[in-house]
Amino acid sequence: MDNTSQARFNYQVIIGCILLAAALGVNYFTIPFLQEIGWYPVLYSFHLHESDLFIYLPTAFDLVCIVTALILVRGRKSLRSLVTHSFAYNLFLLATAFVIFFGINGISPGRYKVIHILLILCIFFLLTNCLYFSVIRERQRHIPNFFKNMALVLYALVFIFLVLEVVFMFITQSHRYNGSLSSRSWFNKYYDLNSEGYRDHEHDREAENGKTKIMVLGDSFAEGHGVADPADRFSDVLGAYLPGSYQVHNLGKGGSDVRNALERLKKYPFTPDLLVYAYYPNDMENDCQAAGMEMVRIPHMEEVPGIFRYFVKRSYMINYIYWKFPHGSDLFNYRDYLAGCYGDSTALEIHLGRLDAMQDYADSLGIHMVTVIFPFLEAVDSTRFTAEPIVDHLTATGGYFIDVGAMLRGRPAEELIININDAHANEAVHKEVGDSLYHYLRSNSLL
Q1: DSSP conformation letters of 292-355
Q2: Torsion of CA 303, 308, 309, 311, to 10 degrees
């Protein structure tokens, strides 16, 4: 072996060893440490694909590293020669590049756009190489024209798909269950949490000393799910009416219920002077289960068979198209379930007791509590059964409340909701509720 060959061999061995070390450094067991030091993405609660984070991505990365390392250390070809002369190696890299690309989509949609685009360019390069090796190269000209044409058609379709993936990567649109990639992209773009973990600005204790603090509690309706600008939420609409001696705190948290909201309020470092609770019918879920009624789980993508579900969940374009069509028929079962909950005396007693506990806490602080009762906005009139027991109870106990369903009765859903797949309140409803809340507080001398 001459000096040039020896040097090249040593160079390949060194690269191979580095790749093997990289494969050993990224796996299921090392990922928590890599996340801790900030070298690997963290899975947020609304990003649902743990398998991508802990299995598919590291496995694809490790396969590329190990296979390439073994070829470099034991083989005679350089890495450049592999890329420019080996169809099998290019096809292998193409497959793993697709896995990595889809995996990143599942983990953190809307982020790492530069990495996405670089991966797409890499996929396009590898795809072109595969086409060249399998169809165009001189010694492959004996392939029948039919197969050559099919290869060209496939190449064109994948190219169009990659271009559309880039386009749909930049589309953001909220979704009721945050189940779509465009919705998670929307969250990454519009949701900024303060140091307390709420979608609110930072509150300074000294700056707010002596001010009247209004705490707005609730779930995603209070948090402003689907509302891009927090200033358009009903809590902020209320705050815009108030003078500088008032300060509104938004303690909305998606998925919260009455009990959870009260627990969070007690831990919050500020003490309220007025409490506003945004009530939504799914607050009943946990209390219904406590009464022994099994929760109805709403299925997602159950109609999509096997391997296709993998791509529907992880392709920006396919996922967007899938969720563009309504998938709400399963909600009827959920409404029937809630009808049973509100009609069950044990469940309702537990549930109303939760509201009473929050009122008791407000009484212990010597402050007033106002309940803003939101309905199912996609079916305001047909789901009045969720509001009536709450309205009757608050009326009987002398509680303050605003019945949003009564305000919106008879109006079509498309005027009230964010979009066809997101039945949260849109900006117009938030404005109406914020206006009504301000006038209600003034008329009852609560301000």
Answers
A1: TPPPPPPP-STTS-HHHHHHHHH-HHHHHHHHHS---TTHHHHHHHHHHHHH-HHHHHHHHHHH
A2: -140
pLDDT, tens digit, for every residue of 111-131?
778 888 999 999 999 999 998
Q: What is the DSSP letter of 371?
A: E
pLDDT, one tens digit per residue, over 226-250 is: 999 999 999 999 999 999 999 999 9
Query: Which residues, listed in sequence order, are joined to residue 362 by a DSSP beta bridge?
Result: none
Contact partners, residue 233, CB within 8 Å, separation at least 6: 222, 223, 224, 227, 250, 430, 434
Tens digits of per-residue pLDDT, 367-380? 999 999 999 999 99
d(CA 240, CA 366): 25
Distance CA 235, CA 224 (A): 9
Cβ within 8 Å of residue 402, ≥6 positions away = 370, 371, 372, 373, 433, 436, 437, 440
Structure confidence by residue, pLDDT tens digits, 343-366: 999 999 999 999 999 999 999 999
Two tokens at 196? 């307390």
274-279/246-252 β-pairing:
unpaired
Task: Report the alpha-carbon angle 97-188-218, nearest 5.
Answer: 140
Mean pLDDT over residues 291-296, rounded? 82
- Taking alpha carbons only, the member of 228, 242, 199 closest to residue 427 is 228
pTM: 0.85
SS3 category, 198: coil
Give yes or no for a contact between 371 and 399, defined as CB atoms under 8 angstroms apart.
yes
Q: What is the largest CA-CA distance in the chain?
A: 97
- pLDDT tens digits, 36-95: 887 777 765 444 566 777 888 889 999 999 998 888 887 666 777 777 788 889 999 999
Coil vs helix vs strand at 192: coil
CB 235 within 8 A of CB 250: yes
Distances in whole angstroms, Cα of residue 24 to Cα of each of 27, 29, 66:
7, 10, 9
CB atoms within 10 A of CB 351: 27
CA 446 centroid distance within chain: 37
Other C-beta atoms closer than 10 Å to the C-beta of 167 total 11
Chain mean position to CA 268: 25
**Among candidate residues 375, 386, 439, the one with its CA nearest the CA of residue 410:** 375
